[in-house]
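Re: folding output
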Amino acid sequence: MSAEEIRANSVLPAERRPLTLVTDDGLRLVGEVALPIGRTPRATLVCAHPLPTHGGMMDSHLLRKMAWRLPALGDIAVIRFNTRGTTSAAGTSDGEFDACVGEGRDLRAAVQWAREAGLPNPWLLGWSFGSDVVLRHGLALDPAGIILVSPPLRYTSPEELSAWNTSTCPIVCLVPEDDDYLQPEQARDRFSAVPRAQIVVGPGMGHLWVGEPAVRTVLGEVVARLRPEMGPVAWEWPASRAAVEGPMERWSDL
């Protein structure tokens, strides 16, 4: 077999380490960093998860699959963490939900950790509630770029959105065609306040990006932005790489 197809529960080799992030108000947050094996990361993705009061956490499926695949497919370091008061299989972060206020300190702690660890070119990715965390608090963190997945713009004010005009970093909005909260035409209208924001539509997809085609759409866009020199992702694990870096495993797709 020359290559094995990547499927929903495919986990590619990576160096995965648990993290403890400490915020500037003294909270300890549960997290993880996933790194490519035997190579220096070429870019870094810091992930903010969906709404924790509705089940969002660092293991929400898109973020989990970014950590499972992107270190091997794109030489991308992936940092994900539970915001304050959020629980996942890895544990519970200190504090309690703060409606997109204190979560900005959580995001800052993650970006600071990435920079202190020497990880390159940190991009911020927020999914749903996480996109509001990125929009409200990410500008001050000077990211290489931001990717907003299913942005509801529930907590972000027009003024906070317009403030991104003071930056030149790329802004990419991945908007499902059938989103429950902000559909493509609404997104184009709302994000017209920041003319450089790019709207990428997920055809036939919903807010949660369920199913392997939806996952590939999101992860493919991430690689295209962070590693544009690579070209389209090949959704397979070659036997030649498996012999050196390790086999593709299949884990429980929670």
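--- second protein (sequence, then structure) ---
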Amino acid sequence: MRLLPLFTLLTIMSLSFCAQKEAPSPAPTPTPTPTTPTTPTNPVTDTTKKLVWSDEFDKGTRPDTTKWAYNIGTGSNGWGNNEAQYYTSDSTNARIENGSLIIEARKESKGGKNYTSARLLTQGKASWTYGRIEIRAKLPKGVGTWPAIWMLGDNINTVNWPACGEIDIMEHVGKEQDMVLWSTHSKLNNWSLGTQKTYKSTIDGVSTAFHVYKIEWSKDYIQFFVDDKLYYTSPNEGKGTDYYPFTAPQFLLLNLAIGGNLGGPTIDDSIFPCRMEVDYVRIYQ
């Protein structure tokens, strides 16, 4: 999920209109241009890596607060994306059920919005530099849904987005069922410049079965996998941190947005409540 650079945010806030992933503008939002996976194209799985952090979601009824925090509200202070939901930490929106984390979006009014959902993050609790990151998840189905599994740089509060870097391990929108999107964003490679590193492909059954969304991340590249199949590689081209800031710690986010700049203005109210289910999160280094 994309965030705004500081100068854009200030301009937008002055107009009382702010967004997280894509800046509102009278002009059409730039459409990411799928690119062919770049070298190295051979999948890399380092079996010597050890499990350093995980959540199996098999204890209790609520997310572990030693591992997860919440963003609360609409993001109108800068991290929102014109979405239709109000994020809460309520058990109706985020809970443990049958060995999975349930992030549930509901049709209910709160905070001036007509829907509620949840956005969990490890910011301030855990972050990582390099490694293999695996999330086994089943995605919601329905027009208006926008689930995401992604990462942001620990230094976001000092350097802002996009200089902090963003890794989109998985994005999906219900208006393009089974189409999965992977992206990386940096100061000079990001959507607002039309230079983002991005690719999308059809993955059958993302809403009917669990799939493993994985990255292999090193100082040289980030490789994006689904069920151990390599789909895209975002390389370090040796141009510095303005292009590849992914040599510093990043934290993880899991959320289910409704509507918004990528989810679209059309929302099918018949789908609610709908949920993203996460079986586990595992980090290897």
